[in-house]
Design a protein that fits this description.
- It contains nine helices and 17 strands.
- The protein has a seven-stranded parallel β-sheet with strand order 7-11-6-1-4-5-12, with helices on both faces. Strands 14-13-15-16-17 form a five-stranded parallel β-sheet.
- Helix 5 packs parallel to helix 9.
- With about 325 residues, it is of the alpha/beta class.
- Strand 2 and strand 3 form a beta hairpin.
- It has two domains: about 170 residues, HUPs (Rossmann fold, 3-Layer(aba) Sandwich), CATH 3.40.50.620; about 120 residues, TPP-binding domain (Rossmann fold, 3-Layer(aba) Sandwich), CATH 3.40.50.1220.
- The structure holds flavin-adenine dinucleotide.
Length: about 325
Protein backbone atom coordinates (compact mmCIF):
# COMPACT_ATOMS: atom_id res chain seq x y z
CA UNK A 1 0.00 0.00 0.00
CA UNK A 2 1.26 3.50 -0.80
CA UNK A 3 2.52 5.70 2.01
CA UNK A 4 1.28 9.12 3.09
CA UNK A 5 3.58 11.17 5.33
CA UNK A 6 2.07 13.57 7.86
CA UNK A 7 3.91 16.36 9.63
CA UNK A 8 3.14 16.05 13.34
CA UNK A 9 3.58 19.45 14.94
CA UNK A 10 3.28 19.45 18.70
CA UNK A 11 3.80 21.47 21.85
CA UNK A 12 5.85 19.44 24.33
CA UNK A 13 4.36 16.19 23.00
CA UNK A 14 0.76 17.40 22.61
CA UNK A 15 -0.19 17.21 18.93
CA UNK A 16 -1.46 20.51 17.59
CA UNK A 17 -4.95 20.59 16.13
CA UNK A 18 -3.84 21.27 12.48
CA UNK A 19 -1.78 18.05 12.57
CA UNK A 20 -4.72 16.09 13.99
CA UNK A 21 -6.72 17.32 10.99
CA UNK A 22 -4.00 16.01 8.67
CA UNK A 23 -3.82 12.65 10.44
CA UNK A 24 -7.59 12.23 10.13
CA UNK A 25 -7.49 13.08 6.41
CA UNK A 26 -4.55 10.72 5.89
CA UNK A 27 -6.37 7.89 7.65
CA UNK A 28 -9.42 8.42 5.42
CA UNK A 29 -7.22 8.22 2.30
CA UNK A 30 -6.79 4.46 2.76
CA UNK A 31 -3.01 4.85 2.45
CA UNK A 32 -0.48 3.77 5.08
CA UNK A 33 -0.11 6.71 7.46
CA UNK A 34 3.42 7.57 8.49
CA UNK A 35 4.29 10.53 10.71
CA UNK A 36 7.31 12.67 11.45
CA UNK A 37 7.71 14.66 14.68
CA UNK A 38 10.62 16.84 15.70
CA UNK A 39 12.01 18.31 18.93
CA UNK A 40 11.49 17.61 22.63
CA UNK A 41 8.29 15.65 23.19
CA UNK A 42 8.49 13.96 19.76
CA UNK A 43 8.24 10.45 21.15
CA UNK A 44 5.13 11.32 23.16
CA UNK A 45 3.56 12.93 20.10
CA UNK A 46 4.53 9.92 17.98
CA UNK A 47 2.81 7.52 20.37
CA UNK A 48 -0.26 9.76 20.47
CA UNK A 49 -0.39 9.80 16.64
CA UNK A 50 -1.11 6.06 16.73
CA UNK A 51 -4.54 6.85 18.16
CA UNK A 52 -5.26 8.92 15.07
CA UNK A 53 -4.31 6.30 12.51
CA UNK A 54 -0.51 6.55 12.15
CA UNK A 55 1.14 3.15 11.86
CA UNK A 56 4.73 4.37 12.05
CA UNK A 57 6.22 7.66 13.26
CA UNK A 58 9.78 8.92 12.92
CA UNK A 59 10.61 10.81 16.12
CA UNK A 60 13.62 13.16 16.29
CA UNK A 61 13.80 13.75 20.05
CA UNK A 62 16.54 16.34 19.72
CA UNK A 63 16.68 19.71 21.53
CA UNK A 64 18.34 21.23 18.44
CA UNK A 65 14.98 20.79 16.70
CA UNK A 66 12.89 22.49 19.39
CA UNK A 67 12.85 25.67 17.33
CA UNK A 68 12.55 25.82 13.58
CA UNK A 69 15.85 25.75 11.73
CA UNK A 70 15.42 25.56 7.99
CA UNK A 71 18.46 23.39 7.29
CA UNK A 72 18.08 20.98 10.21
CA UNK A 73 14.38 20.45 9.56
CA UNK A 74 15.13 19.91 5.87
CA UNK A 75 17.76 17.29 6.72
CA UNK A 76 15.37 15.46 9.05
CA UNK A 77 12.45 15.44 6.60
CA UNK A 78 14.69 14.44 3.67
CA UNK A 79 15.98 11.51 5.70
CA UNK A 80 12.42 10.36 6.40
CA UNK A 81 11.24 10.81 2.81
CA UNK A 82 14.25 8.88 1.50
CA UNK A 83 13.41 6.03 3.86
CA UNK A 84 9.60 5.99 3.84
CA UNK A 85 9.17 6.86 0.14
CA UNK A 86 5.73 8.49 0.52
CA UNK A 87 3.58 9.38 -2.47
CA UNK A 88 1.89 12.17 -0.54
CA UNK A 89 3.30 14.56 2.08
CA UNK A 90 0.84 16.61 4.15
CA UNK A 91 2.05 19.68 6.05
CA UNK A 92 0.23 22.26 8.13
CA UNK A 93 -0.13 25.92 7.20
CA UNK A 94 2.42 27.06 9.79
CA UNK A 95 5.09 29.45 8.53
CA UNK A 96 7.81 26.86 9.09
CA UNK A 97 5.98 24.29 6.95
CA UNK A 98 5.37 26.88 4.27
CA UNK A 99 9.14 27.43 4.22
CA UNK A 100 10.04 23.75 4.32
CA UNK A 101 7.66 22.05 1.89
CA UNK A 102 8.61 23.95 -1.30
CA UNK A 103 12.29 23.25 -0.58
CA UNK A 104 11.58 19.53 -0.19
CA UNK A 105 9.34 19.51 -3.25
CA UNK A 106 12.09 21.06 -5.36
CA UNK A 107 14.61 18.53 -4.05
CA UNK A 108 12.33 15.65 -5.02
CA UNK A 109 11.44 17.21 -8.41
CA UNK A 110 7.84 17.45 -7.26
CA UNK A 111 5.03 19.97 -7.05
CA UNK A 112 3.54 21.62 -3.99
CA UNK A 113 0.13 23.12 -3.28
CA UNK A 114 0.34 25.67 -0.49
CA UNK A 115 -2.51 26.99 1.65
CA UNK A 116 -5.11 24.45 0.48
CA UNK A 117 -8.56 24.78 1.98
CA UNK A 118 -10.02 21.52 0.62
CA UNK A 119 -8.39 18.13 0.21
CA UNK A 120 -9.51 14.83 -1.24
CA UNK A 121 -7.38 11.75 -1.84
CA UNK A 122 -8.63 8.88 -3.97
CA UNK A 123 -6.40 5.95 -4.97
CA UNK A 124 -3.35 7.95 -3.90
CA UNK A 125 -4.26 10.88 -6.17
CA UNK A 126 -4.62 14.24 -4.44
CA UNK A 127 -7.10 16.94 -5.44
CA UNK A 128 -7.11 20.26 -3.60
CA UNK A 129 -8.87 23.58 -3.64
CA UNK A 130 -7.05 26.76 -2.72
CA UNK A 131 -8.00 30.45 -2.71
CA UNK A 132 -6.21 32.63 -5.24
CA UNK A 133 -5.97 36.36 -5.91
CA UNK A 134 -6.62 37.25 -2.26
CA UNK A 135 -9.57 34.89 -2.13
CA UNK A 136 -11.34 36.31 -5.22
CA UNK A 137 -11.48 32.82 -6.72
CA UNK A 138 -11.01 29.22 -5.69
CA UNK A 139 -8.66 27.09 -7.82
CA UNK A 140 -8.84 23.31 -8.13
CA UNK A 141 -5.30 21.96 -8.15
CA UNK A 142 -4.04 18.46 -8.97
CA UNK A 143 -0.55 17.08 -9.53
CA UNK A 144 0.92 16.01 -12.86
CA UNK A 145 4.37 14.52 -13.33
CA UNK A 146 5.02 14.86 -9.61
CA UNK A 147 6.62 11.81 -7.95
CA UNK A 148 5.53 13.13 -4.54
CA UNK A 149 2.45 15.27 -3.93
CA UNK A 150 3.23 17.94 -1.31
CA UNK A 151 0.32 19.85 0.25
CA UNK A 152 0.21 22.40 3.06
CA UNK A 153 -3.29 22.81 4.49
CA UNK A 154 -4.77 25.95 6.00
CA UNK A 155 -5.78 25.08 9.61
CA UNK A 156 -9.37 24.47 10.69
CA UNK A 157 -10.55 23.27 7.27
CA UNK A 158 -10.76 19.52 7.95
CA UNK A 159 -12.48 17.48 10.63
CA UNK A 160 -10.69 15.65 13.45
CA UNK A 161 -11.76 12.11 14.36
CA UNK A 162 -11.93 11.14 18.02
CA UNK A 163 -8.87 9.17 19.18
CA UNK A 164 -9.30 5.40 18.92
CA UNK A 165 -7.40 2.34 20.04
CA UNK A 166 -4.26 2.04 18.01
CA UNK A 167 -0.56 2.41 18.35
CA UNK A 168 2.24 3.53 16.11
CA UNK A 169 5.68 2.04 15.77
CA UNK A 170 8.00 4.80 17.01
CA UNK A 171 11.29 4.98 15.14
CA UNK A 172 13.86 7.12 16.93
CA UNK A 173 16.05 9.19 14.66
CA UNK A 174 18.71 11.84 14.97
CA UNK A 175 19.69 14.53 12.56
CA UNK A 176 23.10 15.65 11.50
CA UNK A 177 23.84 19.34 12.00
CA UNK A 178 27.56 19.61 11.52
CA UNK A 179 27.55 21.37 8.16
CA UNK A 180 25.06 24.11 9.07
CA UNK A 181 25.23 27.46 7.33
CA UNK A 182 22.65 29.01 9.67
CA UNK A 183 22.90 29.14 13.45
CA UNK A 184 19.95 30.41 15.50
CA UNK A 185 21.59 32.47 18.24
CA UNK A 186 18.58 33.75 20.10
CA UNK A 187 14.80 33.72 19.88
CA UNK A 188 13.05 36.68 21.44
CA UNK A 189 9.50 35.63 22.23
CA UNK A 190 6.68 38.20 22.07
CA UNK A 191 5.32 39.44 25.37
CA UNK A 192 1.79 38.23 24.60
CA UNK A 193 0.44 35.47 26.84
CA UNK A 194 -2.06 34.51 24.18
CA UNK A 195 -1.94 31.75 21.54
CA UNK A 196 -0.44 32.72 18.21
CA UNK A 197 -3.19 33.87 15.85
CA UNK A 198 -2.63 30.94 13.48
CA UNK A 199 -3.42 28.49 16.27
CA UNK A 200 -6.29 30.36 17.94
CA UNK A 201 -9.80 28.95 17.88
CA UNK A 202 -11.34 32.37 18.60
CA UNK A 203 -9.96 35.72 17.42
CA UNK A 204 -11.18 39.22 18.21
CA UNK A 205 -9.72 41.73 15.78
CA UNK A 206 -9.76 45.51 15.68
CA UNK A 207 -9.39 48.12 12.97
CA UNK A 208 -9.30 51.86 12.46
CA UNK A 209 -12.92 52.09 13.64
CA UNK A 210 -11.66 51.64 17.20
CA UNK A 211 -10.45 55.25 16.89
CA UNK A 212 -7.35 55.02 19.08
CA UNK A 213 -4.77 52.50 20.29
CA UNK A 214 -6.05 52.66 23.88
CA UNK A 215 -9.35 51.13 22.74
CA UNK A 216 -7.58 47.84 21.96
CA UNK A 217 -8.01 47.28 25.72
CA UNK A 218 -11.70 46.63 24.91
CA UNK A 219 -10.63 43.78 22.62
CA UNK A 220 -8.21 42.45 25.23
CA UNK A 221 -11.02 42.39 27.82
CA UNK A 222 -13.30 40.43 25.49
CA UNK A 223 -10.45 38.09 24.52
CA UNK A 224 -9.78 37.37 28.22
CA UNK A 225 -13.38 36.25 28.72
CA UNK A 226 -13.50 34.16 25.52
CA UNK A 227 -9.99 32.71 25.79
CA UNK A 228 -9.30 34.33 22.42
CA UNK A 229 -6.32 35.85 20.65
CA UNK A 230 -6.30 39.45 19.46
CA UNK A 231 -5.75 40.43 15.82
CA UNK A 232 -5.72 43.65 13.86
CA UNK A 233 -6.07 45.20 10.43
CA UNK A 234 -3.07 46.57 8.62
CA UNK A 235 -4.34 50.15 9.03
CA UNK A 236 -3.79 50.03 12.79
CA UNK A 237 -0.51 48.13 12.47
CA UNK A 238 0.75 50.82 10.09
CA UNK A 239 -0.45 53.45 12.56
CA UNK A 240 1.77 51.84 15.20
CA UNK A 241 -1.09 50.90 17.54
CA UNK A 242 -0.14 47.20 17.64
CA UNK A 243 2.77 45.06 16.36
CA UNK A 244 2.83 43.41 12.94
CA UNK A 245 2.60 39.97 14.57
CA UNK A 246 -1.08 40.81 15.17
CA UNK A 247 -1.88 41.66 11.55
CA UNK A 248 -4.39 39.49 9.73
CA UNK A 249 -4.54 39.52 5.95
CA UNK A 250 -2.67 39.25 2.71
CA UNK A 251 0.52 40.74 4.16
CA UNK A 252 -0.14 39.46 7.66
CA UNK A 253 -1.29 36.11 8.99
CA UNK A 254 -3.82 33.76 7.42
CA UNK A 255 -6.26 32.51 10.04
CA UNK A 256 -9.35 30.30 10.03
CA UNK A 257 -10.68 30.17 13.60
CA UNK A 258 -14.10 28.87 14.62
CA UNK A 259 -15.08 32.43 15.56
CA UNK A 260 -13.66 35.70 14.17
CA UNK A 261 -15.00 38.97 15.60
CA UNK A 262 -14.07 41.99 13.45
CA UNK A 263 -14.58 45.30 15.25
CA UNK A 264 -14.23 48.54 13.29
CA UNK A 265 -12.74 46.75 10.27
CA UNK A 266 -14.10 47.71 6.84
CA UNK A 267 -13.42 44.35 5.18
CA UNK A 268 -10.95 45.35 2.47
CA UNK A 269 -10.09 42.48 0.11
CA UNK A 270 -6.57 42.26 1.59
CA UNK A 271 -8.00 41.76 5.09
CA UNK A 272 -10.58 39.23 3.90
CA UNK A 273 -7.78 37.27 2.21
CA UNK A 274 -6.50 36.38 5.67
CA UNK A 275 -9.73 35.48 7.49
CA UNK A 276 -12.62 34.79 5.12
CA UNK A 277 -12.50 31.01 5.67
CA UNK A 278 -13.23 31.47 9.39
CA UNK A 279 -16.20 29.32 10.43
CA UNK A 280 -18.31 32.11 12.00
CA UNK A 281 -17.61 35.79 11.37
CA UNK A 282 -19.16 38.53 13.50
CA UNK A 283 -18.74 42.11 12.26
CA UNK A 284 -19.25 45.25 14.33
CA UNK A 285 -19.32 48.40 12.23
CA UNK A 286 -21.15 51.76 12.26
CA UNK A 287 -21.57 51.64 8.48
CA UNK A 288 -24.26 49.16 7.38
CA UNK A 289 -22.74 49.25 3.87
CA UNK A 290 -19.26 48.17 5.05
CA UNK A 291 -18.00 45.28 2.84
CA UNK A 292 -17.24 43.13 5.90
CA UNK A 293 -21.00 42.56 6.31
CA UNK A 294 -21.06 40.68 3.00
CA UNK A 295 -18.77 38.04 4.54
CA UNK A 296 -20.19 38.13 8.07
CA UNK A 297 -22.37 35.39 9.53
CA UNK A 298 -23.73 37.91 12.05
CA UNK A 299 -23.55 41.69 11.82
CA UNK A 300 -23.91 44.35 14.50
CA UNK A 301 -24.39 47.90 13.22
CA UNK A 302 -23.05 50.04 16.02
CA UNK A 303 -20.13 51.78 17.66
CA UNK A 304 -17.51 49.13 18.53
CA UNK A 305 -16.37 51.09 21.57
CA UNK A 306 -19.88 50.66 23.01
CA UNK A 307 -20.70 47.19 21.65
CA UNK A 308 -17.47 45.48 22.80
CA UNK A 309 -17.94 46.16 26.55
CA UNK A 310 -21.56 44.93 26.28
CA UNK A 311 -20.40 41.69 24.63
CA UNK A 312 -17.73 41.25 27.30
CA UNK A 313 -20.31 41.64 30.08
CA UNK A 314 -22.79 39.24 28.44
CA UNK A 315 -20.17 36.57 27.71
CA UNK A 316 -18.89 36.92 31.28
CA UNK A 317 -22.39 36.13 32.60
CA UNK A 318 -22.90 33.27 30.12
CA UNK A 319 -19.55 31.62 30.69
CA UNK A 320 -19.22 32.05 34.44
C1 LIG B 1 -0.64 45.21 -1.10
C2 LIG B 1 -1.56 45.46 0.09
C3 LIG B 1 -1.54 44.55 1.12
C4 LIG B 1 -2.40 44.75 2.22
N1 LIG B 1 -2.40 43.82 3.24
C5 LIG B 1 -3.29 43.96 4.25
C6 LIG B 1 -3.38 42.98 5.29
O1 LIG B 1 -2.62 42.01 5.35
N2 LIG B 1 -4.30 43.16 6.25
C7 LIG B 1 -5.16 44.23 6.26
O2 LIG B 1 -5.99 44.32 7.19
N3 LIG B 1 -5.08 45.16 5.31
C8 LIG B 1 -4.16 45.07 4.32
N4 LIG B 1 -4.08 46.06 3.39
C9 LIG B 1 -4.81 47.32 3.61
C10 LIG B 1 -6.28 47.26 3.25
O3 LIG B 1 -6.44 47.61 1.87
C11 LIG B 1 -7.09 48.27 4.09
O4 LIG B 1 -6.54 49.55 3.91
C12 LIG B 1 -7.12 47.95 5.57
O5 LIG B 1 -7.48 46.60 5.77
C13 LIG B 1 -8.12 48.86 6.26
O6 LIG B 1 -8.09 48.67 7.63
P1 LIG B 1 -9.37 49.00 8.50
O7 LIG B 1 -10.51 48.17 8.05
O8 LIG B 1 -8.96 48.95 9.92
O9 LIG B 1 -9.61 50.56 8.19
P2 LIG B 1 -10.71 51.26 7.32
O10 LIG B 1 -10.77 50.71 5.95
O11 LIG B 1 -10.45 52.73 7.48
O12 LIG B 1 -12.08 50.88 8.01
C14 LIG B 1 -12.49 51.31 9.26
C15 LIG B 1 -13.91 50.83 9.45
O13 LIG B 1 -14.34 51.17 10.74
C16 LIG B 1 -15.69 51.57 10.68
N5 LIG B 1 -15.93 52.42 11.87
C17 LIG B 1 -15.63 53.73 12.06
N6 LIG B 1 -15.95 54.09 13.31
C18 LIG B 1 -16.44 52.98 13.92
C19 LIG B 1 -16.91 52.72 15.24
N7 LIG B 1 -16.92 53.66 16.19
N8 LIG B 1 -17.33 51.46 15.51
C20 LIG B 1 -17.33 50.49 14.56
N9 LIG B 1 -16.89 50.69 13.30
C21 LIG B 1 -16.45 51.93 13.01
C22 LIG B 1 -15.83 52.30 9.37
O14 LIG B 1 -17.18 52.30 8.93
C23 LIG B 1 -14.91 51.45 8.48
O15 LIG B 1 -15.66 50.41 7.85
C24 LIG B 1 -3.25 45.89 2.27
C25 LIG B 1 -3.23 46.79 1.21
C26 LIG B 1 -2.40 46.58 0.14
C27 LIG B 1 -2.43 47.57 -1.01
Amino acid sequence: MANILVSIEHTAGKIKSPSLELLTAAKKSGMTVIGVSLGAGSKTAAAEAGKYGATKVYAFEDAALDNYNSELYFNAYKQVIDEAKPEVVLGTGSSSQKDLLPKLAATFSSGVVADATELSIANGKVTTKKPMYSGKCLATAEFVNSPIQFVSMRPNQLSVDAPADGSAEVIEKSVSGTDMRIAIKEIVKGASKRLDLTEANIIVSGGRGLKEAANFKLLEDLADVLGASVGASRAVVDAGWVPHSMQVGQTGKTVAPSLYIAAGISGAIQHLAGMSTSKVIVAINTDPEAPIFQKATYGIVGDATQVLPLLTEEFKKMLS
